[in-house]
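Hello again, I could really use a second opinion on something today. I've been staring at a protein lately and its backbone has me curious. You're getting the sequence in one-letter code plus the fold written as tokens. I'd be grateful if you could look everything over and explain what you see. No rush at all, and the record is pasted right below:
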Amino acid sequence: MLVEDDPAKRRYEILVDDALAGFAQYLPRDEVLIFTHTEVDPGFQNKGVGSALMRGTLDQVRAQGQRVVSRCPFMTAFINRHPEYADLITSLD
């Protein structure tokens, strides 16, 4: 599984055997990415693809020195279950 940022589409995508298996959509705001929606193709659900997408996305966000605002229930639930990513959460105050 490969997670890549596609800035033109404003989303992180996960590829499984070169097939698009899911994505996490975002809106960029300076050093903050506002995640609005995550989608996993039905054929890849319940196979760990969503979790791999979240890990890959959040690891890349961290490596780039960015932070996240999660307006996506899937991402919020993932971060709640994986507090090692809680430090990436910020607000738009």
